[in-house]
Specification:
Length: 117
């Protein structure tokens, strides 16, 4: 009977770790995306004198303005989310000594990297 409880505790701990990582990784990316979007809105308004396009596909908005806004905002938000998730992963590794759940590709040879402490 004692043997059955050990694997159950291990599974529960892994599930909790996955939930914690999802919360940490997603939360940090979400906060970074919101912060960058607000910064971009303010920067665009300062640079152009009007609000950024909310719907760049609208034909009333100039083509160059729409494309420039889509490129700048998409790139900046993507970079911020990636940076925040990578920082969260570094924090996870520093705290637990393991790569966050789901980040190691078990099927690829050499996918487990050595962790520095």
């Amino acid at each position: 009977m004692a043997n059955k409880t050990k694997p159950d505790k291990s599974k529960a701990k892994k599930a909790q770790g996955k939930r914690t990582w999802k919360l940490l990784g997603t939360g940090s990316a979400l906060v970074a995306g919101i912060a960058v979007a607000r910064f971009l809105d303010a920067a665009w308004a300062t640079a152009t004198g009007h609000k950024p396009p909310t719907r760049p596909e609208n034909p009333d908005i100039g083509g160059r303005e729409a494309l420039l806004w889509a490129a700048v905002s998409g790139m900046a938000i993507g970079v911020a989310k990636t940076y925040a998730t990578r920082r969260a992963a570094q924090y996870w590794i520093k705290s637990t000594g393991e790569v966050p759940p789901g980040m190691v590709d078990e099927g690829k040879p050499g996918s487990k990297r050595q962790l520095k402490r």
